[in-house]
Structures are given as C-alpha cells and as structure tokens.
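Following up on my earlier message about iron/sulfur cluster. Here are the inputs again, as you asked, copied directly from the submission form:
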Amino acid sequence: MALTHWQAGHRQVLVSHKPGAITVSLTESELVTYDLAGRFLGAYDHGTNIRRGLDNTFQKRWRVGAQDGQHLRQSNLTAPEANTYLEGLRVRVAGLLEDQAAAQSHPATAQALKRAVGFTYDRLVTDAATFTGLYGHIPILPPDQYRALVVQATDGCSYNRCTFCTLYRDKTYQVRSAEDFRRHLEAVLGFMGRGLSYRISLFLGDANAIAIPTPRLVEIMHILHDTALLRPILERGGIHAFLDIYTGMHKSAADYRRLHALGLRRVSLGVESGSEALLSYVQKPVTRQDMVSVMTNLKNGGLAVVVIFMVGLGGSTYRDVHLTESAALVETLPLSKGDVIYLSQFTPDPQAPYRPLAAESGLQDMTSDEISRETKRWKGVLEGRIAVKGVKVAPYSFQRFIY
Ligand code: SF4
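Thanks, got it. Here's what our run produced:
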C-alpha cells in the first residue's frame, strides 16, 4: 500500500493506494474508497459502513449496543438518499483537487480522484443499468468470492427445485455457447474497465457452472486463459464455481484433475444439511454417501472445497437432527487444509414455497435470535469434529451479500 498526501487549504489530503482501489481520508473518522475506474465502492462514516453494489444498491451497516452485546443492523439507502450521499461526497472530493499545483505533484492520485469525481450519481445509475443488462442479477456468491470477477458460463440453476430457494426462479437454465460466452466476457471486461483491477479471482456463474459437460468447460477455460486482461486475476486467485451434488456425481476425479490443471481452484457446495430427512423435506434429496463421493472425487482431482450448511433450515422441528447429522457428515468428509465450512443463517424468503409448506406441515420456525445462538452451537460442535488442522468454520449472513 502506498500513501500520498498534500495540503488542501487547512486540510491534509491523505490517499492510500491499495491494489485495485484508492481510499481517501476525508476526516479522521471518514474514509471513502473507489475502484480505479472511479466507481464508489464504500465508505466508513463515523461508525457506519456504506457499500455500493454494481447494481447501485447502497447498503448501510452499523452496530447498536444491547444488554447482550453489540448487534449489527443493516438497511439499504433509498435512491434519493443514495443520490444525496454520493453527490455530497463528490463535492468534498472535488474540493481536495482545488489546489492544482499540489494535485499536479501527485498526478496518479489526482487522476484517480478526478475519475471518482466524474462518476456522478446519474452516471452510476446508467452504469448499473449496463451491469444488469450484462448479468441479470448476481444473487449470491460464497463469502470468499465477493471480490471475484463473475463471468456467466451458464444462466440460472440446472435444478431450481429446492423449496427454500428463489435465487434463480426467474431464469431458465441454459449453457452459453462458446461464441456467446466470448461475447459476454468481452462485454464484462468493457464494463469493468479499470475497475477490473479490484477483482482478485474469477467466479464462473451461475449456480452450478461445473454442471457443464467437461469438454465444453475445458473450452471455456481455454477462452479465459487466452484473454490477456484476465491473466493477473487468474494468476492471483484462480477460478472458482458453485457445484451441486447431483451434477457433481456426473464427473470423475479425472475430470476435476483436468479442470484443476486449467486453473479451477475451489468449488463451493451448497450442502445445506447432513440430514437426509431434512434434505428430502426441502426437496433437495441427496444422500450423505453421494456427498462424500462427490467431495472425494473433487479432492482427488486436487481441488479445495467450500461446504455451506444452512443453519435454521427446518426450524426447531429439525434443529437437533440437522446439527447431529451434519456433524456426522463433516467427520466423514475428506477435508484438508484450506477448505472452508460456511454456516449460512437461514432467513425464509416469503416468495419461496418453503413457508406455505412449513405452515401446512406444522413445522416450528426459529427466530433470528435463536438462529444466531444456534450458529454459535454449530461452530463449536463442527470445530470439535474436524480431524485436520487448517479447515475454517465461519458463520456468514447471505443478507449482507452485495456485488
Ligand atoms: S439451492 Fe442451489 S441447487 Fe437448490 S434451487 Fe437454489 S441454486 Fe439451485
């Protein structure tokens, strides 16, 4: 990280250059970060964090004190609020460039700040429309991939029947042809511009891109490697993707070894639970044996894995069996150093079939406080069951995802 500073009137301008982003200290308790294209990425403002997604969502997070400790709160800014906030920042950052002589002594910093000032709120709105035209929406990524460059080799989810999930209900699953993928990739790179340097890995979307037949996947990976602009990203973070257990069963260790040789590093599996009864209840019926078999092939192919469990799924009705059988599954998985288990806190989507089905079957939901406590219980139990060192168990909230 490099620091530049100069005097602007009574103020010292302090800008830190990180790989792919610059952060400006507006005051001791106000920092604002932009990507190198000038897009607002986020800010810290007197204890409140504000982050922007490429779809122009402005998400605000802050902590409040309570008897049992600090709680994180979150809301989205309305469009007028976001407009006022962003324009206020722009005026202040423009003010830092007023002393031309000082700014000219730090030309790279001044250029980066000028690009940020050039991104008006209206321009961000247009930028977001381009993003949506390119991607539709990106509803989820594994937490370690929030800074990935997403490129969609497929659209939607090939399964799309889990009762709790609405992430891809509006999309018809399709695999892009090589030609279509090339066009998409070119458009993505054009859209990102200098902002590409903020991205530290490549994520092959959407929900289960590894479901693509291996020869076509190999073709896609060659297209990625033939793209010069992607080289730094591929070298730094490699290629990542989601995989569901059903399609994972159609590939062998030799397939995964081939993909690993082409840069695939880690695959994220939405396992949700080790309880076959619960998986069947939410219409994601796979056996523990299937999961072990898919993960063994992935590991034999040289890949790292992310295993995602959904804490709170099945409410208090399934509370104990969900944890007990997930812990039993973890004991049998061939996990190794660098693998991650994420504990996603379940929040039923009102639009998903899960809710009416739960009401019909008399299932007892858990409150969000109960799920928070349950997540701590899961973390303790799973950490005690993992036999190897270097496998992380980390809770995360899907609601905080922003791309
Ligand atoms: S949970 Fe995963 S496999 Fe199930 S419908 Fe959603 S994206 Fe598809």
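One observation from looking it over: The chain has a mean pLDDT of 94. Hope that helps, and feel free to reply on this thread.
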